Every structure is written in structure tokens, then in C-alpha cells.
Amino acid sequence: MDVFDVNGHEQVVFCQDRATGLKAIIGIYSTALGPALGGTRFYPYESEAAALADVLKLSRSMAYKNAMAGLDLGGGKAVIWGDPAQLKSEALLRAYGRFVESLNGRYYTACDVGTYVQDMDVVARETRYATGRSVQHGGAGDSSVLTAWGVFQGMRATAEHTWGTPSLRGRTVGVSGLGKVGKYLAGHLLEDGAEVVATDVSEAALDWARSTHPQISLVADTETLITSDIDVYAPCALGGALNDDTVRVLRAKVVTGGANNQLAHSGVGKLLEDRGILYAPDYVVNAGGVIQVADEIQGFNFERAKLRATGIFETTRRILSLADDEGVPPAVAADRLAERRMADVGRLRSIYL
User: Which one from 65, 77, 88, 253 is the annotated catalytic residue?
Assistant: First the structure.
């Protein structure tokens, strides 16, 4: 491929440390609003090309997510290529931290799939630009807490838009993935009076559900879940959950979940609209986590961060209203608002100080 064919990104950095086995890619999509912020995904991709494609997609999404969350931060993401169960070590994480530090604040990293707060504590020993650290090391702790809270707020807004009330009481919500975010989301839904149907590929996650929330109905797989009689579908695992095939059989009237990049391609938003299924853009509703780690940069205050994440309810309402007014899918409306903010606020950087 053309090395400059990187989907409009400002910078793509390839990092390698042979001694530890580190192979990482850092993608910085935009710094129009400020330093790029986005997590580090540690994943055994099938190929280098797959790793690059993922980091480009994810870093672009982070720029839009941070813009819609009202943060003065740009969008970036990193991937470490490999199986974390086999490859992750203190030396590798510290080597990665050195590469993050070399960008001198253009990119702040945090947790993502395959990385945890304990990992960010290690990374932070080599860089000033790691967030999502543990409370013991001056951080905010698990960002999944506010990610799930924000998804719940977005779901309340979609419920209001669809059924006239911002509550999931009496509704059946299908949660695909009971990991970092899904387990907290399930708890909020049960407290709100919803019925929860769920699935996960991890037997440990299913055991957690059986012991912690035995009222959750567990099904064999995601295909069974989406063809069940559910009102809301909440994808909370990896991306690409919504494609031509799944949308064709999906029975829910609303899709609101915590996974990133839920639409397999841009046309899926129109397919959902044609079927009368309301989709809350993933990067809008799952922004609670990035709100939390961004708050950590200035000295973390949980109540302040939670209040800001609660604002995802109003942001989602605004997007759904704009989509109705302009006759476009919510994903298009959200993109327009994010691009407008990046252009309008980013332009101020041209004023010499």
C-alpha cells in the first residue's frame, strides 16, 4: 500500500523493540482540538495489515468521540500486535511507554481491549502521557465504570425517542459481551427495571452473571441473541457487530451499545434506518470512559467526570433530533456535529498567541 494512504491521519508511528517482542502502531488522526487521546489495544491480529487497518479506524473514531464529548482533545489510538497472554511483560510495556514519551505529548494513551489499569501503571513509569492508571498510582481506576454509565444514558435517550419515556423499565435488552463494560451496563439496566438477556464467549463472564445477577437470561451466542424477542440490542464486545446479515435478522427496535466501530461499513446506518431500527452512534454513547481518563489528566474527580458522562443523555437527544430534522441517519448527524466542532474550534489555533 501507499504509506501515505492512511485515511487522512496526521501521523502514523511504527514502534518495534526486538528484545521484548514489541510491535506497536500509534495512529494520530487529528490534533485540531488538542493532544490526541485514545487507548492501547493489545490483540493478536491475523496480519500487520489488519493491525494497521484497525488502528486507523479506531484513531479516527476517537477524534469524533472526543469532539462530541466536548473535550479539548484530538483523536489517536495504538495497537500492540500479539497475544497479550503470551507476550505481555513489564519490559514490553515499558518499551512501549518510551515510544509514547517520544511523541512529547502529541498522544495520550489509556486502556483498551487487552490492556488494564495495571498495565497503564507500568507504561506510566516511562511516560508522562499515560492515563487510566490505578487509584494507588494517582489515576482514576477502571474507565469501564463511566463507559457503562454513559452507554446507559445514551440508551435512556433512545428509549425516550422511541417509546416516549427515558426508562428501560419493562423493556428487554440484549447485551452481547459481559466484559469490562457489559457487566456494569447490565447492572444499571436491572436497577432500572429492564429484563436482560446476554451472551459472552467467555465462560468466566457467564459464571459471573450466574453468580452475581442470576435474573439475567443467558443464551448460547450472539446470533441467538439478536434473533430473540428483544427491544434493545447492546453490542459490548469487539467492533463490526452490525453488518448486512445481522441487521437483516435483528429484532430489536433500538441499538445502543458500548463496542467501538459497531457498523461494519458506512452503509449499515442506512440499512438500520430502512428497517426502522434506531441506532445511537457508538462513539457518542461510549464516551464515558474517555471522559474519565481525560479528567485524570487534570487531576481526577469522580463526581465531576460522572456529571460530564451523564451529559451523554442530552448529547444523544441532540443528535437524534438533528437526524430527524435533516432526514439523515443518527450516525451521519453525529459526524456532522463532530466535524463542525473540530473545524470551528480547531480554526482558533490559527490565531497567533
Answer: 77
Q: Is 180 marked within a binding site?
A: yes
317-346 residue pLDDT tens: 999 999 999 999 999 999 999 999 999 998
Q: DSSP states of 165-179 as a string?
A: SS--TT-EEEEE--S
Whether 70 has a binding-site annotation, put simply, is: no
57 tagged catalytic: no
pLDDT tens-digit map of 255-269:
999 998 899 988 999
- CA–CA dist 123, 110 (Å, integer): 9
Q: Where along the chain do the CATH 3.40.50.10860 domains lie?
A: 11-62+74-137
**65 annotated to a ligand binding site:** no
Q: For the chain, where do the domains classified as CATH 3.40.50.720 start and end?
A: 144-287+315-338
Is pLDDT of 238 > 90? no
